[in-house]
TrEMBL record:
Bilayer-spanning residue ranges: 71-92, 145-165
Keyword terms: Membrane, Transmembrane, Transmembrane helix
Organism: Goodea atripinnis
Protein name in UniProt: Transmembrane channel-like protein 2-A
PANTHER family according to UniProt: TRANSMEMBRANE CHANNEL-LIKE PROTEIN 2, TRANSMEMBRANE CHANNEL-RELATED
Taxonomy of the source species: Eukaryota, Metazoa, Chordata, Craniata, Vertebrata
Domain of life where this protein originates: Eukaryota
Gene that encodes it: TMC2A_1
């Protein structure tokens, strides 16, 4: 196994699977002395610590870029949520104007339903694409994604109700 450690295992990059290679190929089975075994154990432990330190250093190098991308992603998602709310408000107001006309096309009759359906269809994948910028752990990314979709649907519902109540108060 130690001789084959240099041979690539496919299309992977050099230095990939360092932990696994060290775990399975670093022990010398010809060790017969307990003191030598302790020294080898300490050596392996030190090499594992260096792998962890190297990964932490790589994370720290890009911390400012990661923060900027997370702020950018949240800004884009906030703009998307605000834009969807404005679009629904605009379409509800427009549908109220259409209510006075008799010669409506199919699209004008169903514009509100079409817009609401398209927002529910387009925004969640858009949120997922934008969330790729944040580089969160998948479990945390899923929680954020579900929260954003919940905010989208709840915000769209409240905007829809607000626009309807606003129209009712102008008529009263």
């Amino acid at each position: 196994m130690a001789n084959n450690a240099d041979v690539g295992g496919g299309d992977g990059e050099e230095g990939e699977f360092t932990f696994a290679w060290k775990m399975f190929t670093s022990w010398d089975y010809l060790i017969g002395n307990a003191e030598t075994a302790d020294n080898k154990y300490a050596s392996i432990t030190t090499s594992f610590k260096s792998i962890v330190d190297e990964q932490e250093n790589q994370k720290d190098e890009n911390i400012h870029l990661r923060r900027f991308l997370r702020v950018l992603a949240n800004f884009l998602i906030t703009c998307s949520l605000g834009g969807s709310g404005y679009l629904i408000y605009f379409v509800v107001k427009r549908s109220q104007e259409f209510a006075t006309r008799d010669d409506l096309s199919w699209y004008e009759k169903n514009e509100l339903e079409i817009v609401m359906s398209l927002l529910g269809l387009v925004c969640p994948p858009l949120f997922e694409t934008i969330a790729e910028l944040e580089d969160y752990h998948p479990r945390i990314a899923l929680k954020w994604q579900l929260g954003r979709i919940f905010a989208l649907f709840l915000g769209n519902l409240y905007t829809f109700l607000f626009a309807l109540f606003d129209e009712v108060n102008d008529k009263v």
